[in-house]
Amino acid sequence: MRSNLAFSLRWRMILTFMASGFLAAVSTALMLAVAANLAGSIPPFNWLLNFLADTVGVWPIVFAVAVVLSFTWYILLSQPMIRYLEALSRAMDEVARGNYDVTVPPRGRDELGLLGENLVSMSRQIKASLQRERQANQARYELITAVSHDLRTPLTSVLGYLQLIDEDRYRDEVELRYYVDMAYEKAKQLKRLIDQLFEFTRTSHGGIVLRPVPINPAELLEQVAEAFVPALQEAGMEYRLRLPDERATVLADPDLLVRVLENLISNAIRYGREGKVVELELEVRRVERAVLLRVANRGNPIPSHQLDRIFDSFYRGEVSRSGRTGGAGLGLAIVRNIVTLHGGTVRAINETDRTVFEVRLPAAGGAEAAGAGLSPGAAVRTD
Question: Domain 213-362 sits in which CATH superfamily?
Answer without folding.
Answer: Histidine kinase-like ATPase, C-terminal domain (3.30.565.10)
